[in-house]
Amino acid sequence: MKIGFVGLGIMGHPMALNLIKGGHELFVYGKRRLPADVREGGATVCDTLKAIAERSEIVILMVPDTPDVRSVLFDPDGVAEGLSPGKVVVDMSSISPIETKLFAGEINKKGCEYLDAPVSGGEVGAKAASLTIMVGGPEAAFAKVMPLFELMGKNITLVGGNGDGQTTKVANQIIVALTIEAVGEALLFAARAGADPAKVREALMGGFASSRILEVHGERMIKRTFDPGFRIELHQKDLNLALQGARALSLSLPNTATTQELFNAAAALGGKGWDHSGLVRVTRWVRPHSRHRGSCREKHRYYNFHTTTRDQTLDPGNAGTRSMEVRPQERPQTEVSCKSKKMRWSYMPVNVCPYL
User: Is 250 exposed, middle or buried (CB count within 10 Å of its CB: 0-12, 13-18, 19+)?
Assistant: First the structure.
């Protein structure tokens, strides 16, 4: 089958490779960086998105956000200009359900079908072809694209009409975000109480608290490996969709809103590019308390930091490490003293905060 694929990033790259391995002919956009293994796998490079659509039976999009999908589809020389009746557009991005319905309507006017098919499973699932795929759109188009979905994922469900796939993904992202926050708090509690968080995680994996988040992201938190599989800025975008939808539906999502504020705090500290499991950095770091200092009667707020080594886990505070206190209003790169020893710190002190 001739397939156009737009969006060869962290997720799209391995998904495209799995389609090539499945024996399909891929047409990709050549004006941006093209992964060498996609080119070597035989993908045909096109100069415009219109050309990709003209040469493909099915066009798959895997781009970051709603404006990106709109641009790819409807900008001059975009995908829509290259479509002809009978073709199928499959948007596997995570975007607005409301906008998805509008996009589908415009594509339908050209005699083409539209599926919204966002995924869950992260980079690990994309590489392993084990993604969960949540699909909205006509049954006939779903049946036509199903052999391609099966090369990229395992749990594949036609939820309903256009927009329902994206609604399901928003619900998924609410659950994932809140569970990441819960796992972070639980492991922090265990570490501060003096338990080995790695052993605590191992024990919890055999009980009712077991989850994929605890398995994968719990390990990331303990090892402090936050290279992005799914970036915080993308999860912020997804929770924005959830909160916008809730307002439109007159719903209150208080825990979603709280978790979004934690993501916002991480982004403010320069963490937009962290993996979303890096939310635990904010949970651990922002631990202010009040105390008197010198003769001043006003209570000031301080943050606790601990020096740490690479082999220490979530909370080295009980491992004989040296503590210091820094006012949160101190500017980045302020020099502070601790027992006559000088230390440099930034607002994200890699060698000071135990999560970094």
Answer: exposed
Per-residue pLDDT of the chain (356 residues; tens, 9 = 90+): 999 999 999 999 999 999 999 999 999 997 667 899 999 999 999 999 999 999 999 999 999 999 999 999 999 999 999 999 999 999 999 999 999 999 999 999 999 999 999 999 888 899 999 999 999 999 999 999 999 999 999 999 999 999 999 999 999 999 999 999 999 999 999 999 999 999 999 999 999 999 999 999 999 999 988 988 788 998 999 999 999 999 989 999 999 999 999 999 999 989 999 999 999 988 775 444 333 333 322 333 333 333 333 334 444 444 433 333 434 444 344 333 333 343 333 333 333 334 33
Angle between helices 164-192 and 254-268 (to 10 degrees): 70
What is the DSSP annotation of 132-186? EEEEES-HHHHHHHHHHHHHHEEEEEEEESTTHHHHHHHHHHHHHHHHHHHHHHH
Nearest alpha carbon to residue 63 among 131, 114, 12: 12
Q: 273-299 burial, b if ≥16 CB within 10 A, otherwise e?
A: ebbbbbbbbbbbbeeeeeeeeeeeeee
Q: What is the pTM of this model?
A: 0.74
Identity (one letter) of the amino acid at 261? E
Q: Please tell me the distance from the alpha carbon of residue 248 to that of residue 37, in angstroms, as a whole number.
A: 44
Give me the catalytic one of 87, 144, 169, 237: 169
Using the Cα atoms of residue 310, residue 313, residue 316 and residue 319 in order, give the sign of their dihedral: negative
**Amino acid found at 221:** M
Pairing, β 131-136 against β 296-306: unpaired
What CA–CA distance (Å, rounded) separates 230 from 181? Answer: 15
Residue 9, both tokens = 């990033």
- Region class of 152: left (phi > 0), else alpha (psi between -120 and 50), else beta: alpha
| C-alpha triplet 342, 348, 349: angle, nearest 5° | 30
* Percent helix, percent strand, percent coil in the chain, to nearest 5: 45, 20, 35
Burial class (CB within 10 angstroms; exposed 0-12, middle 13-18, buried 19+) of 311: exposed
| Catalytic residue status for 127 | no
